[in-house]
Design brief:
Low-confidence stretches: none
Number of strands: 14
Order of helices and strands: HEHEEHEEEHEHEEEEEEE
Strand order of the largest sheet: 4-5-7-8-10-9
Largest sheet: 6 strands, mixed
Structural class: alpha/beta
Radius of gyration: 17 Å
Distance between the termini: 18 Å
Strand content: 25-35%
């Protein structure tokens, strides 16, 4: 959850991460940035556009992809859903946020909001046509709550009915419960990855390892997700 909004670099509650963080992450092995989160407009539209510009440069230099934020309608169509092809399997990623702390003050760039259900439905339909597996990546839920909310579950069921094959959530800063709904695996929140938070339960986190297999008929399925407990202090 950060922007690359330029100097002065700032932390909570309005983030502008230092330039070079995106390159460092790419060289650590990250392949995709999920940009739909409540902090993406912390430096308003100018900061979001600067973030996009650096992501585009990173895409050219390192082959890193991004989704959840777009600079215009053409860019949005290209990145929603974001289709990843690897080892003969195509995966569609759909990323959206419950909201943003600050709104945009220009028409573009735009992020993906959970309330845009008609638009998200169209992305899920496109994913069904274009990819073997669809993974929904919502930024949602009540902060610091160890169990999911009724709204999260309702949204998860809606995503599943529209074609999501797995749901991996973020935002609450703590690990929430995992479950299976209608044969679809759901992780409501993996918690923090790297942060300086020290509040109760915020240093415990999960890594989800998802393996996708394709059988001799060409049909793909997701094996049981493996969860690894991690600690960040």
């Amino acid at each position: 959850e950060f922007t690359l909004g330029g100097k002065p670099y700032t932390g909570y509650p309005s983030f502008s991460a230092p330039d070079g963080l995106e390159i460092y992450l790419a060289e650590c092995g990250f392949d995709v940035f999920l940009s739909a989160n409540n902090h993406i407009f912390d430096k308003r539209s100018k900061g979001a556009q600067r973030t996009l510009d650096l992501f585009k440069h990173l895409e050219e230099s390192h082959g890193i992809r991004y989704t959840g934020l777009a600079e215009d309608e053409e860019d949005s169509q290209k990145r929603n859903p974001l289709i990843i092809n690897n080892k003969g399997i195509s995966v569609a990623l759909i990323n959206f946020t419950y909201g943003t702390n600050l709104g945009y003050d220009e028409q573009w760039p735009k992020t993906n909001y959970q309330g845009q259900k008609k638009t998200i439905t169209s992305w899920l339909e496109k994913a069904e046509e274009s990819a073997d597996i669809t993974i929904a990546l919502p930024h949602w839920g009540p902060e610091y709550q160890l169990t999911h909310s009724q709204e999260q579950e309702a949204t998860a069921l809606w995503l599943i009915d529209k074609g999501a094959d797995a749901i991996i959530g973020s935002h609450p800063h703590v690990v929430q419960d995992t479950t299976t709904l209608k044969s679809v695996q759901v992780a409501y929140s993996l918690g923090n990855a790297v942060s300086n938070m020290s509040a109760t339960n915020t240093q415990v986190e999960l890594m989800a390892t998802m393996r996708i297999v394709k059988d001799s008929t060409g049909k793909c399925r997701i094996l049981p997700i493996e969860y690894t407990w991690l600690w960040c202090s």
